[in-house]
Write a structure and sequence with these properties.
Helix content is about 40%, strand content about 10%. The protein has 21 helices and 15 strands. It is globular, with a radius of gyration of 22 Å.
């Protein structure tokens, strides 16, 4: 099976007209004529998996490992198979899988991985196209096109989505609706307190609450080393350097020159460094887990994180606390071609698909590939994946899985069945859908060595945030290290892979 789309990611989808009304109307306009997926019921007798044992590798903890366990157990009971789950910390999961792949060992039958690693992992994974073709449970047409694109590599589908990532801005709805705060903010800053559309507004709001409300931290963001801080940084940077052109966030697509130290990137980092003084006192030690545990407890005014419903208090209480807002943007963008800043009439709010989204893949070394596919198709099916992304049966802090199917957005009743208030669910789904189907959505880096490039960026960003280096100095050093990685892996090869990944070749 080959996906019949004109391009893989570029140019990015255009559904703008459908986003003007309520999400239900938007989805009706976009999905007109598309049949609602009919979840298939697995017949254990047909599968004949009694005694089969699978080994599944996944990131440890509340975000990814724990949420899938109830549905893996259901599948075990239905099929008679057993699944041994190995949980691995984020910093170790990529090297752990790659070590196994290179050694040719059959350590795993299913791996839950990120598409950004496909440049390195593709040769070790089983293509899924023939398995997906015509599979009612996989329901491929129900997966949003951009969420299909990110799991392909060189025209082969290698990952079955369980998630489709992007970053979002969260705000404290209770504080924003407080009459005293609204009046005071208006007096001080001269404009209405509202969800921020620009990074300047974001800073003003964080500064206001830091100085005026002793019970609220101004902002919460991941800023510690080795905790995915680089994706927060890229989500802030993208609007300063790109209006839809491919390549502007990472490399020059003509020669692989790093662009990470451009004036746009540097300005974004300079403004991010300012947030340290208006954030939580220990913000330099924050990772996404800290944000997800603390923000829902009414301790902050603003936060940046992945667009997960789990950001709402998991006990389903006080759901009105958290508001969902597409990522802010700057009012100027740096043009790499002219070397000039362009003033804009509207904020350049570019949705960024940080990490792209976790999904399940089958290593070629697995001796149980058929059974592995049966588990994967079950977890990714419309019925089970809706439960997964809406935290059905899950009250742990903050699942890391986000909607990726049309049916996830259409079936608001399913979210209500997961105990979310209808108003909150609709606001969340609309903000998420709006970002995933924007005129321009920026995907994450997907080339060989992506893990190394992003780790070097993580080192530079966290050094600048901690005041150990100036932003320009930090990003200049990152650019040098990126060049070294490119040269080591072969500049011509990397350039070709990069151009293919952004749809130029």
């Amino acid at each position: 099976m080959k996906n019949q789309r004109a391009s893989r990611i570029w140019p990015v989808l255009k559904y703008g007209a459908a986003l003007c009304g309520l999400i239900v109307l938007a989805l009706a306009l976009i999905g007109a004529g598309r049949a609602e997926p009919e979840p298939e019921v697995v017949d254990p007798e047909e599968l004949e998996l009694e005694g089969v044992q699978l080994r599944l590798g996944v990131e440890t903890g509340h975000a990814l490992g724990d949420p899938i366990k109830p549905y893996v157990e259901e599948w075990e009971e239905m099929t008679g198979a057993s699944v041994e789950i190995t949980e691995i910390p984020f910093a170790e999961i990529y090297p752990r899988f790659m070590t196994s792949f290179h050694a040719g060992t059959d350590d795993f039958d299913v791996v839950i991985i990120l598409p950004t690693w496909l440049g390195d992992m593709s040769q070790f994974l089983v293509p899924l196209d023939d398995l997906i073709e015509g599979d009612d449970m996989a329901a491929w047409d129900d997966v949003l096109p951009i969420c299909q694109d990110i799991v392909t590599w060189q025209d082969e589908t290698l990952i079955m989505p369980l998630d489709c990532d992007l970053f979002m801005s969260f705000y404290n709805r209770t504080a924003f609706l407080d009459d005293d705060h609204r009046a005071a903010f208006q007096d001080i800053y001269g404009y209405e307190l509202a969800p921020p559309e620009t990074w300047d507004q974001y800073y003003d709001i964080a500064e206001y609450f830091t100085e005026e409300d002793p019970d609220l931290y101004g902002a919460m963001e991941s800023m510690s080393r080795g905790t995915q801080t680089f994706w927060t940084g890229l989500s802030r940077m993208v609007g300063y350097v790109s209006q839809g052109e491919p390549g502007a966030l990472f490399f020059d697509p003509e020669d692989m020159t790093p662009l990470i130290n451009s004036p746009g990137h540097v300005r974004a980092l300079e403004e991010w460094v300012r947030v340290v003084d208006v954030g939580a006192p220990d913000i330099l030690e924050f990772d996404v887990g800290d944000i997800r545990e603390q923000f829902p407890l009414n301790t902050g005014a603003l936060a940046l994180d992945w667009a997960s419903i789990g950001f709402i208090p998991t006990d389903r209480e006080n759901q009105e606390l958290i508001g969902f807002n597409p990522i802010p943007g700057p009012t100027e963008v740096y043009d790499h071609d002219t070397g000039q800043w362009i003033e804009l009439d509207e904020p350049n709010r570019v949705p960024y698909m940080a990490a792209l989204g976790w999904g399940a893949a089958i290593p070629v070394t697995s001796n149980e590939q058929e059974a592995a596919w049966q588990l994967i198709r079950y977890l990714s099916s419309p019925e089970i994946s809706l439960k997964l992304v809406s935290m059905r049966d899950n009250y742990d802090p903050a699942t890391g899985y986000q909607p990726f199917r049309y049916s996830h957005f259409e079936n608001v009743d399913g979210w209500v069945e997961s105990e979310w208030d209808r108003d909150r669910a609709e606001e969340y789904l609309e903000a998420t859908f709006e970002s995933l189907t924007a005129d321009f959505v920026k995907p994450d880096l997907r080339i060989p060595g992506a893990f190394e490039y992003l780790d070097e960026l993580d080192a530079g960003l966290t050094a600048a945030l901690a005041g150990e280096m100036e932003p320009q100095e930090a990003l200049d050093e990152v650019a040098e290290r990126w060049d070294a990685i490119t040269n080591r892996k072969g500049r011509d090869v990397q350039l070709q892979m990069y151009r293919e990944s952004i749809g130029l070749d």
